[in-house]
């Protein structure tokens, strides 16, 4: 068992080296040799953990998605009391924005994967896999809000959930491009949630 845990940890360290490259110059120019140098290991050592670039990219994509899920779960768990559906949605959505150095790197790496996935069938399938689940979760929260009388029933739809995902994707891109500051992105997110739910809670800036 210790050997298996160590093997996984080394694969994660190599993935983090790949992310550092992806966050500054994308994935297209990142060779196995480049990643090995960034990780401070030999090419032969890297190939002990990954047989090729495709395998490394898939593992790294799954790893960064797992960390993002964990970060959002922690935001939800930190909410006081029994959080409302709106509070849960806000925690999730703000957690998807590049609001600090760690989340900015995550979004930059995600953008690099997106650019490559357009022409890479394996990465495209992996990148798309989580979207229906996220849309379903958001739609469930919207329906729960409607049942509590906090949202008009005709707004509790899969389409409305997809619009929330699309809003955050757009805001994230504009933060990366310095069109918006992180604070402005959160303000616009809160503005949309206020219009969706009719004002009320959730106007503070997310950290």
Automatic annotation (TrEMBL):
InterPro entries: BetI_C, Homeodomain-like_sf, HTH_TetR, Tet_transcr_reg_TetR-rel_C_sf. It comes from the Bacteria. Residues 8-68 form the HTH tetR-type domain. One of its GO terms (molecular function) is DNA binding. Coiled coil: none annotated. Keywords: DNA-binding, Repressor, Transcription, Transcription regulation. Transmembrane segments: none annotated. The keyword rRNA-binding does not apply. Residues 31-50 bind DNA. The keyword Nucleotidyltransferase does not apply. It holds the Pfam family TetR_N. This is TetR/AcrR family transcriptional regulator. It comes from Streptomyces piniterrae.
């Amino acid at each position: 068992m210790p050997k298996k845990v160590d093997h996984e940890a080394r694969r994660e360290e190599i993935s983090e080296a790949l992310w550092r490259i992806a966050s500054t110059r994308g994935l297209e120019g990142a060779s196995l040799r480049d990643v090995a140098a960034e990780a401070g290991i030999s090419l032969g050592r890297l190939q002990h953990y990954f047989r090729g670039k495709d395998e490394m990219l898939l593992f790294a994509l799954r790893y960064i998605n797992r960390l993002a899920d964990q970060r959002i779960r922690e935001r939800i768990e930190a909410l006081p009391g029994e959080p409302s559906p709106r509070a849960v949605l806000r925690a999730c959505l703000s957690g998807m924005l590049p609001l600090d150095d760690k989340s900015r790197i995550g979004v930059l790496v995600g953008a690099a994967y997106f650019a490559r996935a357009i022409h890479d069938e394996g990465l495209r399938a992996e990148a798309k896999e989580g979207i229906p689940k996220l849309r379903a979760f958001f739609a469930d929260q919207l329906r729960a809000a409607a049942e509590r009388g906090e949202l008009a029933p005709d707004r509790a739809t899969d389409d409305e959930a997809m619009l929330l995902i699309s809003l955050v994707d757009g805001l994230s891109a504009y933060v990366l491009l310095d069109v918006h500051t992180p604070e402005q992105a959160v303000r616009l997110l809160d503005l949309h949630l206020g219009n969706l739910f009719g004002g009320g809670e959730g106007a503070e800036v997310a950290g």
